[in-house]
Amino acid sequence: MRRTKIAVCIGLLAAIALSVSVVGQRIGEGRTLVVGIWGAAQEELTREYVVKPFEQATGARVELILGGSTDRFVRLYAEYDNPTMDVAFLAYGQAQQALKDRVVQGPNPINVPEWKNLYPQAQAVGYGVAFLAVGLMYNTEYVKQAPTSWLDLWNPAYKGKVAPFVFPGTQGTAFLVMAARAHGGDEYNIDAGFNAIAQLKPFPAVLSGIPETNLGFLTGDIWFAPQIHGYVYEFKAEGGPVDFVYPSEGTPFAMNVATIPTNAKNTDLAEIFINYFLSPANQLAYANRLFYAPTNRTVQLPPELAAMMPYGAQQIAELLELDWAHITAQQSDWADRWNRQILEK
Amino acid sequence: MTLATPSFVILGIGFLAPLVLLFLLSWRQSVPGSGLILDQWTTANYTRLLFDAYYFKIFWRTFTIALYATLLSLALGYPIAMAIARSKGRAKAFLLAVVLTPLLTNVVARTLGLMILLGRHGPINNLLVQLGLPRLTLVPGVPGIVIGLTQVFMPFLILSVSSVLENIDPALVEAARSLGCTRFGAFRRVVLPLSVPGIVGGSLFVFLLSFSAFVTPQLLGGGMVVVMTTLIRQQAMVLLNWPFASAVAIVLLLVSIVLVGTYTRALGGAERRESTRVAASSKISSWGRAVQELRRASYDLAASLGRAWTRLARYLRPMRLALGKLRFMVRAGGWGGKALIIAFILAPLPIVIVSSFSGSSLIMFPPRGGFSVRWYVGLLSRPEYIRSFFISLQIAALSVLIGVSTGTLAALALVRYRFPGREVLRTLFLSPLMLPAVLVGLALLRLLAMMGWTATFRGVLIGHLVLVTAYVIRTVSASLVGFDRSLEEASRNLGAGVFRTFRRVTFPLIKPGLIVASIFAFLVSFDETTVSVFITGPGTITLPVRLFSQLEYGLDPTVTAISSILVVIALLALLVADRLLGLEKFSTMR
Amino acid sequence: MLCLLGPSGCGKTTLLRTIAGFEKPTSGQVWLGGKDVTRTPPEKRNTALVFQNYALFPHMSVFENVAFGLKVRRWPMREISSAVKEILDLVGLSGLERRWVKQMSGGQQQRVALARALVIRPSVLLLDEPLSNLDAKLRLEMRTHIKSIQRSLNITAVFVTHDQEEALTMADRIVIMHQGRVVQVGAPREVYATPNCTFVADFIGKSNCLRGIVARDADGPLFIVNGGPRVRLEGAAVAEGEAVLAVRPEELRLDDRGAASETENALPGILMHTTYLGEMAYHHVRLEGGSMLMVAEYGKQVRERAIDEEIVILWPREAGTMLRS
Fold first, then answer.
1. Is the pLDDT reported for residue B303 higher than 60?
2. A332/B33 Cβ within 8 A
3. Chain B neighbours, 3+ Cβ pairs < 8 A
4. Which residues of A touch B238 (CB under 8 A)?
5. Which of A10, A25, A8 has its CA nearest to residue B398?
6. What distance in Å separates the CA atoms of residue A271 and residue A113, rounded to the nearest whole number?
7. Separation between Cα atoms, residue A160 and residue A153, nearest integer Å
8. Does the pLDDT at position B257 exceed 60?
9. pLDDT tens sequence across B498-512
10. Subunits that touch chain A (at least 3 Cβ pairs < 8 angstroms)?
11. ipTM passes above 0.90
12. What is the H or E stretch that residue B113 is in?
């Protein structure tokens, strides 16, 4: 009865192929909103404070695509005519570029009423969802004297303990520019930054993710890294031997931005989703859990929490605004140079 | 010829058209900082690549990494190949299982194991510290990549060498010994030179795979090591410089074609020589003769090396006694060494599985925070992973159904009928397996984007079908070549029609080949990562891709849980395959 | 030249490999040239084995194959080439040194294998069914060739075969093995003429083996074949009781004139069929009681006879060997 067996096998394969199609179709019933966002804690928060009320209210389903913003940025351009995402969360510079290139839609205050409550910096790029400060993360176990300046990283005593982030990336790019500024250059004169970072070699690591960063600090391999304030306070809250400082030369301002692709299929749903995202409930949850500074002016934070993030118009204005348009235009050349000068031995 | 049409359509859409597109794209100019491409021709991408020493440096680094991985594979793989060739029964089945396990498990899952194993605070470094030695930075870095590539690709070399070793008549060794050779001398003078074809074939294959590998250097290099494939990815997916990425990809393609050409000629030449030996020697093609010469030259080289050794040994005669002792120790340590190599092949799997039960959110080995199943429980609350699992399953099932049926027809056409361009067609069908997957993914993504098929189910399916069909054609061709056509003639002679003959005679006889092809096709599709990284998107993200992007973004313990599940699935497949057919059938697969 | 003869699976190759050192005896010893070599590894025994499939090194030329044993023995190159040349002359392959072994015919490969073994001047040359892979004509040729080479080099040789003809023509002494045991040792004539058991009688040459009882009557010893026919015997006395009587087909005749002489038994039977082989023929005759006898006829004696007819077999009284049953 060999033939029966084969028939059973083929039938089984066909059944898998078909049955899953049925399952797939059932997920696709009604409408599905595809949202590209970062993973880990952000995913959990979004699910709890945005997806849940959104699905209850609209009956639509939300599909979260997790990953880094670079992937989404690339996808927005590649899929311009036929985007697969309805909402794409981008980093500050990317959002500016995408908006300039008309790859994503501008803000629509009528369908996103919360937009009116945003700080002007957040309104400028569409829907800014969180303010971030890219400052210094340092290891409190090994570094007894808290750093005050970006220049402290070039202290010979710390050689081999400073880990840069990958370029391009929010932390990596900010660090490159701040290294340049601390050494007499700036965005328009980046040589100083490359030369300065090259002096920090050997690196214990070139960081790309949060868990590996935290592990590096925990094991004592890394003493300093450029980092977004929220991640540092989050790890500190878990008992990590780290702290965050706003260096004297300035702390670059960054933002997470929600965007809707120009040709998105579900723009209406996307706007509702973003409105939930900008709601005080979600913003407060983000502040509590991730220490992401709210972009919604109506969110009130207790003082001890407010101390751990750039909160309020004044503090936000104190952060350093980099020329992201210029940086993005130079990105390709700088990446090349980063490969050559920083990654090569 | 018409039999091959369905497969050819798949190949055309999934591989040939994208390659042409990629080639054209490589002569275009991109606007810096955006994904836009200017509508004019330029040679700038190639001049940049050719005249900038930096890119040569990347090329050279890729080359040396592949070379080191090949040499390490050879050094570690040869003893295991030897053990496989010599052993019988259960011992052989065990060794084959050891070698095949990594081949069947997902590359991302294995690489994750290596990340943990080789990490600065991994078991190896902890051991070094215990021994009072300094920590080594293996990962991220070139050493880690070399070790990783070795771990991932060594099985191919082992299978290649062991199949050659198995075909060496044991009487040759006895003949050498009866003529006065010691055990070691017989190995050096007879076995080693005779295994040269297997060494050359296996090494070329490992080199080729290492040279065009993407997942391993990307993950184990930790963004600090740029090789050609990661350069392509960076240029295309991060900097949006598609034309330049295409140019790099075309260069990678040319290098691969040279390597593949050498490889297939070296192997194909050997097969052809065996078959033409019966025929008159005048019929040996000029190429066959060239291969014969090449082989004779390699034997000569081995012989002269042997002579050099002999001469050297004569000078070192006082040391011979010590050497003899050393040899004894080597033999005693041989099994220990082999056990270590086997441990190295298998280690990543248990490490991943043990790590997945960690209670801590930081991945360390041994795990901290006690035993916990929280990451498995966590999986349940993440519908994406479950969804991806089903997408992978669905795509794999469809790939098997479509790929095996069309691929078998194409294999029939290729083996049975002689028509102009048959060899070319055959080479084209198999090329997706040999050429860098990064290239296939990159090219396909461009075409799919043009057709508006990005991230669609059919787009991903086409990508998988291209690879699966190639696998099927190769496996089924192999079982058709050994097929005695007089059986079919007997059936026709006894009055059975064409279809009845196929159903009653041909099909039952090639069935083992089809089953092997199906199992492999399923695993190939289910584990495919590199091509899928490019062509999947929201709604069609397969499980390995989700795993890969998660790992790239950072070590989240959830990935250890998924990896463990993938490993267990692969082990089950191995078990089923062994029960159904016996593992020997699989050892001929590459 | 000693020949190990026996059906396949009787242990003759194992014995040969034990002499070469590839098999370890569980008990007993191997002595070679007056030395106990039971624990000596193969390479130190100075035996040379010619394999059934020749085991020529496919990655070496004819010269390199033959020179192999000398190179291992670290002979100077000049001496190696003269020794190789000499031995290739002897086996009749001079001028083919640069040939690739795969390009040679079976007979030539055989000679290379022989040359490779002989060139190291082994204390004993071991040949494992060396002729079994050759066609019939070549086999006959090589028999005499090997024999003459062995004579001229004056080397002890042990030769394994399952072909009794090969053994009879080539060997000085034959060791007949059966089921792992040596059953008879002797010169070719000796084992042919006086087999010591039914196995040997049947294995070497053709034999009729009749079961029956040895009895004695007034005229002397008598063999009563099962079923009735009586054969009167002369020669060595045999104890009475059950026995087997072996007789060669060529020792028997068919009676044409119907007259048996004084010294012959006359056994009536029915001719069942005849196997005609050209220069000779075998007649298969059924005796009274059902036992079959094979009778050979040679040359001009071969005559066509009617099947199913009664016929008389003449059996000289001195023919036949009595064996224990």
1. no
2. yes
3. A, C
4. 70, 74, 168, 335
5. A10
6. 9
7. 10
8. yes
9. 788 888 888 887 887
10. B
11. no
12. helix B107-118
| C42 close contact with B: CB closer than 8 A | yes
Answer yes or no: pTM beyond 0.80.
Answer: no
At B284 the pLDDT is 37
Count of domains forming chain B: 1
Which tokens go with B330? Answer: 């080597």
The reported pLDDT for the residue numbered A141 is 92
Q: What is the CATH number of domain C2-198?
A: 3.40.50.300
Average pLDDT, rounded, for chain B: 80
For chain C, how many helices (H) and strands (E)? Answer: 8, 18
- Rounded to an integer, what distance in angstroms lies between the CA atom of residue A183 and that of residue B475? 62
Q: Which domain holds residue B560?
A: 2-586
The radius of gyration of chain A from alpha carbons, rounded to an integer in Å, stands at 22
**CA C123 to CA C120: how far, in whole Å?**
9
DSSP secondary structure code for residue C314 in this structure: E
Starting at the edge strand that comes first in sequence, how are the strands of the sheet with C280-287 ordered?
A: C253-254, C310-316, C264-276, C280-287, C292-298
Beta-strand pair A293-294/A127-139: antiparallel
Q: How does pLDDT run across C240-276, given as a tens digit for each residue? A: 778 888 888 888 888 776 666 777 888 888 899 888 8
Q: Which CATH class is domain C206-323?
A: mainly beta
Determine which helix (DSSP H) or strand (DSSP E) holds B336, and give its type and residue range.
helix B317-346
> What domains does chain A contain, in order, with CATH numbers?
28-131+254-318 (3.40.190.10), 133-253+324-343 (3.40.190.10)
List the single best residue of C24, C43, C110 to mutate versus B (max B Cβ within 10 A): C43
List of chain C residues with pLDDT < 50: none
What is the DSSP-derived secondary structure letter of residue A341?
A: I
Residue of B225, B401, B549 lying closest to A13 (CB–CB): B401
Task: List the structure tokens of C157.
Answer: 């040789």
Distance separating the N- and C-terminal Cα atoms of chain C: 32
Chain B residues with CB inside 8 Å of C45's CB? 178
Partners of A81 on chain B (C-beta within 8 Å) are 452
User: Do C2-198 and C206-323 show the same overall fold?
Assistant: no
Q: For B105-114, b where at least 16 C-beta lie within 10 A, e where not — what string?
A: bbbbbbbbbb
Q: How far is residue C72 from each of residues B180, B307, B398, B560, C90, measured CA to CA in Å?
A: 6, 11, 60, 56, 22
Where does the pLDDT of residue B582 fall: very low under 50, low under 70, confident under 90, or very high at 90 and above? low
From residue C113, alpha-carbon distances to B230, B414, C50, C73, C155 in Å are 56, 42, 6, 18, 16
* Chain C residues whose beta carbon lies within 8 Å of the beta carbon of residue B310: 74
Give yes or no for residue B287 having a pLDDT over 60. Answer: no
CATH of the domain at B16: 1.10.3720.10
pLDDT at position C303 is 78
- Among B179, B189, B309, B314, which would you mutate to test the C interface (most chain C Cβ atoms within 10 Å of its Cβ)? B179
Per-residue pLDDT reduced to its tens digit, B166-196: 888 888 888 888 888 888 888 888 888 888 8
B549 in contact with A, Cβ within 8 Å: yes
Q: What are the boundaries of each domain within chain C?
A: 2-198, 206-323
For chain C, where are the alpha helices, taking DSSP H only? 12-20, 62-72, 77-91, 106-118, 136-153, 164-170, 188-193, 198-203
**10-residue mean pLDDT series, chain A (345 residues):** 63 64 46 85 87 86 82 82 89 89 90 91 91 94 92 92 89 93 92 93 84 85 93 89 93 93 90 92 91 91 89 89 87 87 81
List of residues 6+ apart from B415 with CB closer than 8 A: B477, B480, B481
Residue where the block lists tokens 């009664």: C310
- Which of the two residues, B232 and B536, has the higher pLDDT score? B232
- Give B-chain residues touching A201 at CB under 8 angstroms: none
B293 lies within 8 A of chain A by CB: no
